[in-house]
Amino acid sequence: MILTTISRPPEKALRLKKSKSTVDIGYFSGSITHNDDFEMILPVIIEVMTSYQEVRLHLVGELDLPPELLEFQNCIIIHPFVDWKKLPELNINLAPLTDTLFNKAKSENKWVEAALVKVPTIASDLGAFKEKIVNGKTGILCTDICEWKNALMTLIENSDKRKE
Fold first, then answer.
1. Structure pTM?
2. How many Cα atoms occupy the beta-carbon half-sphere of 39 within 13 Å?
3. Which backbone phi and psi does 21 adopt, to 5 degrees?
4. Which of 6, 28, 52, 143 is least surrounded by CB atoms within 10 angstroms?
5. How many CB atoms sit inside 10 A of residue 51's CB?
6. Would you tell me how many other CB atoms lie within 10 Å of the CB of residue 118?
7. What element of type H or E holds 13?
8. Are 90 and 60 in contact (CB under 8 A)?
């Protein structure tokens, strides 16, 4: 695995994001309790990593790397926990949540932090995300794996949509 940290201030990172050739997708697990959430979208992640050579997957926090992703290890960057101000290097923020009582009670912080540094979020249509995100305008909400796939591929393929 490539081990690196995001270290540029937000202004420099925003300029860098405009000129880079990769599409950087971030998943911030927080704690180890989110393995199931990430595994929910794993088929989409595998398809994206297979189809788009320019994609880099950034995993932040505690997460068991699924064995299915080992073949993509050159395109996966593992980070320790980072401050939200260092997020601008990403192009897309992922916030999948399985439909559980615990997840329905989670806050929308991941979306807010990404929005503050102009990074679009694809999130589960659940709990606070459902209450706060205006689908298609302030983020993208997904209810099933097909919607996750369409949303992610649309943002990867369309840089103008990412900037929206």
1. 0.84
2. 12
3. -100, -5
4. 143
5. 10
6. 13
7. helix 10-19
8. no
Give the span between the Cα atoms of 93 and 3, in whole angstroms: 19
**Measuring CA to CA, which residue among 41, 27, 23, 29 is closest to residue 106?**
29
- Residue 3: its pLDDT value, please? 36
State the DSSP code for 31. S
Note every long-range contact of 44-49, with CB atoms under 8 Å and residues 24 or more positions apart, other chains counting. Answer: 44/145, 44/148, 44/149, 44/152, 45/69, 46/72, 47/149, 48/152, 48/153, 48/156, 49/75
Q: What is the pLDDT of residues 52-64, one digit of tens each?
A: 999 999 988 778 8
25-41: pLDDT as tens digits: 998 876 666 678 899 99
